[in-house]
Specification:
By secondary structure, the protein is mainly beta. It has a single domain, classed as Beta Barrel (Porin), CATH 2.40.160. 3% of the residues lie in helices and 54% in strands. It has 1 helix and 16 strands. The strands form 2 sheets. Strands 1-2-3-4-5-6-7-8-9-11-12-13-14-16 form a 14-stranded antiparallel beta sheet. Strands 10-15 form a two-stranded antiparallel ribbon. It is globular. The relative contact order is 0.11.
Length: 303
């Protein structure tokens, strides 16, 4: 059961998973979700989406650390334009409509050999996913992605953390690009710190971030416990280097020269009410028009 309400995002979610659906350890899960997102509140393009999703998924254990899964989702999405929508958003709605039924098939592979889910010091975790709309859908597109985290103990105090996040999507058939409301974003605490959330990459005709169909993000962290011994079980510090951006490869080519870099310090605290992460980032190569934000925090998940 999940509930999240804010000025930019409202989420109601009900999920159920039976981890022992079969005697072989195959799991089966159901997911019912409603999400309302106002992208203008993210300082992004001027539109809103109302999305309802029902899905079923299965997970198959391959080994102690590896799992394969697949599933199907039925999704209804309604796009609501703001008072001053960008030309490319209005053009998409004029040609494709503003409400869509999409049916998606998805597969994933996951690996997790970390020695701790909260403060790992060794091991790795990876997740690859691919999904595509299938016949009967109003729109034809696909997305693939890979996230990898590697932890290498340097000694009893310091751990090297290396992270990568790659994503790509595109249209097929009658659709020549990924729908704008399914774009990837970058910038903010979980991607490139020191830049505002979702602010990097292509901008629409109004000059607002609109995301892209390709995301490239990498992070390097030196992890260490706080100096106060009584806090070491519930807190961890990090010095970080982030790199990344998002791109629209439909209209232009990938340009590594436009990657953004930042460095800084971060802290993760396992508080009584959840995980709190705080960071202070310094952009190294911000360009004119970039939205920077040094102090950032996130509640509910670790980086």
């Amino acid at each position: 059961l999940g509930l999240n309400t804010s000025s930019s995002n409202t989420l109601y979610q009900l999920s159920y998973t039976n981890p022992y659906y079969t005697v072989d350890g195959i799991s089966r899960g159901f997911n019912l979700k409603y999400r309302k997102t106002d992208f203008a509140e993210f300082d992004s393009a001027d539109y809103r989406t109302d999305t309802g999703t029902f899905g079923v998924n299965f997970g198959i254990p391959i080994s102690e650390f590896n799992r394969f899964g697949f599933g199907f989702d039925a999704e209804y999405i309604k796009v609501k334009l703001g008072s001053n929508p960008a030309d490319e958003i209005r053009d998409f709605v004029d040609t494709q409509g503003d409400s869509f039924w999409n049916f998606k098939a998805n597969v994933f592979w996951s690996h997790d050999s970390r020695n701790s889910a909260i403060f790992p010091t060794s091991g790795s975790s990876s997740r690859f996913f691919a999904n595509a709309t299938i016949p009967g859908s109003d729109l034809t597109f696909y997305k693939v992605g890979l996230r990898h985290r590697q932890y290498i103990p340097l000694n009893r105090t310091f751990t090297l953390g290396m992270y990568a996040d790659l994503g790509f999507g595109d249209g097929y058939g009658d659709l020549d690009r990924l729908p704008f409301f399914d774009n990837f974003f970058a910038g903010g605490y979980t991607t490139v710190r020191g830049f505002k959330r979702n602010s990097l990459g292509p901008r629409d005709s109004n000059g607002d971030p609109i995301g892209g169909n390709l995301r490239v993000v990498g992070n390097l962290e030196l992890l260490f416990p706080p100096p106060i011994k009584s806090m070491q079980k519930s807190m961890r510090m990090a010095a970080f280097f982030d790199i990344g951006n998002v791109y629209n490869t439909t209209d232009s080519n990938f340009d590594s020269g436009s990657l953004r870099y930042s460095v800084g310090l971060a802290m993760t605290w396992l508080s009584p009410v959840g995980i709190l992460t705080i960071g202070y980032g310094f952009p190294l190569n911000d360009q004119e028009g970039d939205d920077t934000e040094s102090f950032q925090f996130s509640f509910g998940t670790s980086f």
